[in-house]
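User: What would this chain look like folded?
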Amino acid sequence: MRTDCFMARIMATATYPPPPPYYRLYKDFSENTDSAPEPPPPIEGTYVCFGGNYTTEDVLPSLEEQGVPQLYPKDSNLDYKKELRSLNRELQLHILELADVLVDRPSQYAKRIGEISSIFKNLHHLLNSLRPHQARATLIHIMELQIQQRKQAVEDIKRRREEAQGLLKDAFVTLDGQ
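Assistant: Here's the prediction, encoded as structure tokens.
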């Protein structure tokens, strides 16, 4: 009990706290690499990190789950370009209205700020729902570039091989002619 209290005091006041006790599990690692324990399995589901709850599932929470009113239709065939433009125009209008409110009725600015915040959250939600498509398109583009580079490298190798064969032919013709 006394050592636990002592270690807690050291860890609370030391600039560099002592290593965790499981470092002893690796004492023979330099001689036998198989002596180290297996790493823990990957986390699945929800977990807590620095006081926040996170999940390993890659799911975009809905606006309702976040407590934000959705300003665009809940249609599966949503025209993202049209809705983003619409929200952008609405944002511009609300910013102009905020300027008017700040000049004429400064006490009512909080309502306008809330509306602008809601529009921004809707814009971000729409953009975040396009992230998987963006990632796929980026990967396709990278793979197409790699294929193009490899084809170019193959053509370069073929050209250099032909040059080398030509040089060898010329060298053999020169040797045969002597």
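The chain has four helices and two strands. If you want, I can go into more detail on any region.
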